[in-house]
Write a structure and sequence with these properties.
This protein is α/β, with parallel strands linked by helices. The chain is built from five helices and eight strands; from the N terminus they run E-H-H-E-H-E-H-E-E-H-E-E-E.
């Protein structure tokens, strides 16, 4: 009687482990755009230390930092960039608190004793009116005044000039356009200071003279205002 031989049992071979393609180790996270924008505006907001008009950049940086933290809490596994948001938010908050304090301190300490603080608004002719000194400017004739402005680039005869034209805004200063006559002051420095080409805002104090007739000026149409400045910064 023949017996059917059972086939020899073959050894069991373990299957190689297949990595999980979507495990946490290989998951993809996207960099939060709000965090990036927070850092960008936080850095740009540092300029508000020099001009309070740029403080809105720090405000935007703080807002984007809040948005980034909110999104990171909602989607912790999909978004990254917490450190960027922290840095951007810290820089923004630093300027939001520090810049106003600095500019307030400067405002109350920069006015020399015996001088009246004015702005170009008192010198400019009203919109649509003839470009001649208004009554508010005529009242300042002969007074000691303190004001701020920018050096018109074409008015400097050298990099160590004692005479130049002061204008109220950065656009006129940097593009060298012909400003309206009541937007210009011819400045003569009486102290040891010299003026050179600059894009920053300057502080001046001195005696203001208001002419009723235009005075010719090289390179420009002319001026009605002259300032004998004994303070220049």
């Amino acid at each position: 009687m023949s017996t059917a031989s059972s086939p020899a049992s073959s050894p069991q071979v373990a299957s190689p482990a297949v990595p999980e393609l979507y495990s946490d180790e290989y998951s993809y996270t996207s960099l939060s755009r709000a965090a990036v924008l927070s850092l960008v505006f936080g850095i740009l907001g540092l300029l508000s230390w020099y001009s309070p008009l740029l403080l809105f950049l720090s405000l935007l940086g703080a807002i984007f930092a809040l948005v980034a933290f909110s999104n990171l809490r909602k989607y912790p596994n999909e978004l990254s960039g917490k450190n960027l948001a922290r840095l951007g938010g810290a820089l923004s908050l630093l300027m939001l608190f520090g810049s106003p304090i600095k500019h307030t301190y400067v405002y109350y300490t920069e006015l020399p004793e015996g001088y009246e603080r004015i702005s170009f608004a008192a010198l400019k002719s009203p919109v649509g009116a003839p470009d001649i000194p208004p009554d508010t400017a005529l009242e300042l004739d002969g007074k000691k005044v303190f004001l701020k402005g920018y050096i018109h680039p074409t008015s400097l005869s050298s990099n160590a000039a004692k005479t130049f034209i002061l204008v109220p805004d950065w656009a006129t200063c940097c593009f060298g356009q012909q400003p309206p006559l009541t937007h210009m002051i011819e400045v003569r420095l009486t102290g040891e200071e010299f003026a050179s080409k600059s894009l920053r805002r300057h502080s001046l104090a001195g005696t203001l003279s208001v002419r009723t007739r235009k005075k010719p000026v090289d390179g420009l149409e002319g001026v009605f205002y002259e300032l004998e400045a004994d303070h220049f910064q």
